[in-house]
Amino acid sequence: MSEILNKLAQLQDRAATKKTDEPRRPKSSLKNPSERYSKLLSRLRVFLISSLVGGATLIFCAVLLPHLFAKRSPPPPTQPLVTSSDDTRNPASETTVTTKKTTDDDLIHKAEELVRTGKMDQAMTLLERETGGNPFLIRSLFQLAKLYQKKNRPDRATATLMRILQIEPKNPLAYNNLGVIQLRQKRYKEAIYFLSKACEFAPSAPDPLLNLAITYEQAMQLTESVQTYRRYSELMSSEEARTQRTASERRTLAAVKNRILRLHAFSISGEKSPMGESQP
Questions:
Q1: Mean pLDDT of 204-219
Q2: Contact assessment for residue 236 and residue 190, using Cβ atoms and an 8 Å cutoff
Q3: CA distance 236 to 244
Q4: Which residues, including other chains, have CB under 8 Å from residue 80's CB and lie 6 or more apart?
Q5: CATH number, domain with residue 120
Q6: Using one digit for the tens of pLDDT, what is the confidence trace for 77-132?
Q7: DSSP state, 258?
Q8: What does the alpha-carbon distance between residue 49 and residue 46 come to, in Å, rounded to a whole number?
Q9: What is the mean pLDDT of residues 188-213?
Q10: Are 145 and 173 in contact (CB under 8 A)?
Q11: Is residue 175 within 8 Å of residue 201, measured between CB atoms?
């Protein structure tokens, strides 16, 4: 009987002990997959955000901060391309044109003074020296070519005029003078080429037309000569030209009109040459 009572007492003690123990966490909650997945995603988001923020912070500190706090030097002042020695406000183009024009005028004046005093060789030396260092002195080059022609040096005059055409390829005066040089040497083909170019680039200029007509006549191209004489006559007979003609130009126009009539009569008569007639 006592043994039975002892066993009952032990059973009661065990039951009381189980009741006093803390309740365990249900196993189902530990094994729920959706809860575990959401926790993993949240941890992954936190990790990625922290990594991005940390990387951006490192780039900002390494790259941008040195430039933000670096000592900046002021920009260099704007400088003009070229200035004159006495006025720094003039642009380069104005300074160049003004200097070139003044130098050209002064040089021509000095050369003309030497020529007037009978020192043509010194004038040529002066022009050769100055134009050799500055090929853009166009008027001085024309003056030098003119002196070469007076000294009967057509080759040097031709070379000087060709220098002008290298700078100004459409200069009608250079073409006209080249044509006159070739005409005096009876190189009619070359003269016609140069004078035709002069008429092309200066269609309202009378001198190239007159020189071209004379060249055609001397080359015995009489049809072209008469046509060119007539073009000259029409140009000089226009209202604008009539009011501006000088006495010399009026005499030349009268001679040209007479020349047209004589050449026309010559072509009808069948004579061999009209060269006996005086030219304008």
A1: 94
A2: no
A3: 9
A4: 88, 91, 92
A5: 1.25.40.10
A6: 333 333 222 333 333 333 233 334 447 788 888 988 988 999 999 999 999 998 88
A7: H
A8: 5
A9: 95
A10: no
A11: yes
pLDDT at 231: 94
Structural domain including 153 reads 92-169
Q: Locate 159 and state its tokens.
A: 């070379």
How confident is residue 171, by pLDDT bands cut at 50, 70 and 90?
very high
What is the domain count for the chain? 1
Of all helices (H) and strands (E), which one includes residue 177? helix 172-184
| Residue 188, both tokens | 């009619």
Angle 246-249-251 from CA coordinates, rounded to 5°:
115
Helices 247-269 and 222-236 pack at an angle, to 10 degrees, of 150
* 145-168 mean pLDDT: 95
Instruction: Identify whether 228 is part of a domain.
Output: no
The pLDDT, as a whole number, for residue 88 is 30
Angstrom distance (rounded) from CA 157 to CA 149: 6
SS3 171: coil
Distance CA 261, CA 263 (A): 6
Query: Is residue 154 assigned to a domain?
Result: yes
